[in-house]
Amino acid sequence: MDADVIVVGGGFVGLHTAYRLHKSGLRVVVVGGEDPRKGASWGNAGLIHQGSTTTVPEIMGFWRVVRLALRRGSYISSNPWIALRESLPGGWLWRYARSLKKEQLTERAALLAGLVRESKKQWLGIIRGEGLDAELLERGSIEVYFSDELFSLESRVVSEEAARLGYRVQVLDAEKCRELEPLLREGVAGGLYYLDDAWVNPSKTLNSFISTLQRLGVKIVWEKARGVREEGGGVRVEVESGGLGAGHVVLAAGAWTRNLLKSLGAKIPLIAGRGYLAVSEPVRARLARPLFYADEKIVVGQTLDGNLRLTSYFELNNPDAPLDRSKIIQMVRKVKDALRLEGELRIIDEWVGSRPCIPDGLPVVGRVGDKGRVLVATGLCRLGLTLSPTTAMLVEDIITGRENPLLRHFSPARFT
Ligand SMILES: Cc1cc2nc3c(=O)[nH]c(=O)nc-3n(C[C@H](O)[C@H](O)[C@H](O)COP(=O)(O)OP(=O)(O)OC[C@H]3O[C@@H](n4cnc5c(N)ncnc54)[C@H](O)[C@@H]3O)c2cc1C
Predict the structure, then answer these.
(1) Which residue from 236, 251, 382 has its CB within 8 A of the most atoms of ligand 1, so it is best to mutate?
(2) Which phi and psi angles does 277 have, rounded to 5°?
(3) Atom of ligand 1 nearest to the CA of 42
(4) Where do runs of H (alpha helix) occur along 73-225?
(5) In terms of DSSP bridges, do strands 198-199 and 47-48 run parallel, antiparallel, or are they unpaired?
(6) How far apart are alpha carbons 277 and 280 in whole angstroms?
(7) Which partner from 192, 202, 364, 369 sits 20 to 30 angstroms from 171, CA to CA?
(8) Res. 185 pLDDT band, cuts 50 70 90
(9) pLDDT average, residue stretch 74-98
(10) Which residue's CA lies nearest to atom 51 of ligand 1?
(11) CA 171 to centroid of ligand 1, rounded, Å
(12) Is residue 61 within 8 Å of residue 235, measured between CB atoms?
């Protein structure tokens, strides 16, 4: 056998899983895919976020989400064929619509809030303990609103949820918003200040995590897994250069996990919710903390070198579809309208990545296949940077045989 466990996927879920299993004394090999830049972990917004366990459109109901998706230039969109296919009974959108019941949203928010709190602790422990080059910023984040109507609606909903779930959010008036973030233009309606949020530079953190694992002795193979097979007392993962054998395999290939499951005859409702990133040249102005421009759902973060990182959109599409440049142009224009930045905002890098999304909004962590040697760990959608450490803990619980009552909520069996 080449390892006790093979982890397929070189994003944050795969890396955290490899890290925990290695620390618990197991021999781990990561099959990371072709390029670390391909996964959602590389280009996301970088927020270790305390809210976001439910979104306000979800609370307002399915038809509000549909109306948003049909609006021209909206941050939500879909490939029409995917929308059609996934609206049929049993499809992703069909299941999503049925999951938006008040009790289900409340239960889901409570489950996720517990994981989020523990995840932040884990992230800070690993960043500090292993000396990851993450550009960690612990100054919270601000959601800023230009529309009075949206601000009054969302500040009410978010404050109620924060009080129920125990995270700290301050409602800010326009003056306080501009005092905390002097780069904001006139016309702000108000803001929500998430005091316990943290920010990391995701691509730097990913690269540094990869180097750390290699330094600790975890082997990482930068190839794609082509298929997985349960065989005798173990599993075999086919890669381009041959085959690898192990006692267990963990499928953590983000939005591509669905393809790998096909080789086992297993199925989970997983779809790519694609998001875009534009990175600017360094600018002289400094953001006080990451800013979420709520009207347009754009997160703006800033690297230590001064580059602005703009991220937005939720596009249901094939994970390998090409980038739509008009979305980058629109996002840059909207940020220039919201912030006082001198001169041009020159974009030096553009990217699109796929959030792995499950219709009921909960991760999928558990065994699949006939012999229980294959595990799946995916579906973290909008919160995957935040929640990857605790997802890895759940995987470790399964492999080491530790009881964890939370596991039943995340089991892939809930779809069969
Ligand atoms: C624009 C945007 C902004 C976001 N902002 C935030 C945020 O602020 N906070 C937050 O918590 N989350 C955020 N997210 C979500 C988060 O990025 C994802 O949920 C998370 O990165 C998913 O991690 P993952 O490891 O499951 O998948 P990925 O990061 O996608 O990794 C999957 C990996 O598997 C590899 N792979 C694919 N096929 C194979 C194969 N056959 N064999 C081997 N490897 C394979 C891929 O190359 C990739 O490296 C954002 C996402 C986007 C797109």
Answers:
(1) 382
(2) -130, 135
(3) 29
(4) 80-87, 92-99, 102-130, 148-165, 174-180, 202-216
(5) antiparallel
(6) 10
(7) 202
(8) very high
(9) 93
(10) 44
(11) 31
(12) no
Q: What confidence tier does 68 reach under pLDDT thresholds 50, 70, 90?
A: confident
At a CB cut-off of 8 Å and minimum separation 6, what does 102 contact?
Answer: none
Q: What is the pLDDT of residue 102?
A: 84
- Tokens found for residue 339: 């912030």
Q: What is the rounded distance in angstroms from the CA atom of residue 378 to the CA atom of residue 391?
A: 8
Task: Tell me which of 385, 386, 391 to substitute to probe ligand 1's pocket, judged by most ligand atoms within 8 Å of the beta carbon.
Answer: 385
How much is the pLDDT for 56?
A: 64
Confidence band, pLDDT 50/70/90 cuts, at residue 53? low
Rounded to the nearest integer, the mean pLDDT of the chain is 94
Residue 382 Cα to ligand 1 middle (Å): 10
Which pLDDT score is estimated for 60? 67
Contacts of 296 (CB under 8 A, 6+ apart): 75, 312, 331, 334, 338
pLDDT at 344: 84
User: Does the predicted TM-score (pTM) go above 0.85?
Assistant: yes
Q: Does ligand 1 come within 6 angstroms of the Cβ of 14?
A: yes
Ligand 1 probe mutation, 380, 388, 391, most atoms within 8 A of CB: 380
Tell me the average pLDDT across 355-360.
95
Q: What is the pLDDT of residues 302-354, one digit of tens each?
A: 999 999 999 999 999 999 999 999 999 999 999 999 999 988 899 999 999 99
Q: How much distance in Å is there from the Cα of 153 to the middle of ligand 1?
A: 31
Examine the pLDDT at 52 and tell me if it is beyond 80: no
Share of residues in the chain with pLDDT > 90 (%): 82
| Residue 31 CB–ligand 1 contact under 6 Å | yes
Question: CA–CA distance from 65 to each of 100, 105, 120, 271, 272 (Å)?
Answer: 11, 15, 29, 17, 17
Residues 6 and 244: beta-carbon distance below 8 Å: yes
| Atom of ligand 1 at shortest range from CA of 14 | 25
Give the chain's domains with CATH numbers: 3-43+204-268+360-415 (3.50.50.60), 53-104+133-196+271-357 (3.30.9.10)
Instruction: Give yes or no for residue 38 CB within 6 A of ligand 1.
Output: yes
- Measured by CA distance, the residue closest to atom 18 of ligand 1 is 384
* Cα 44 to Cα 386: distance, rounded to the nearest angstrom: 11
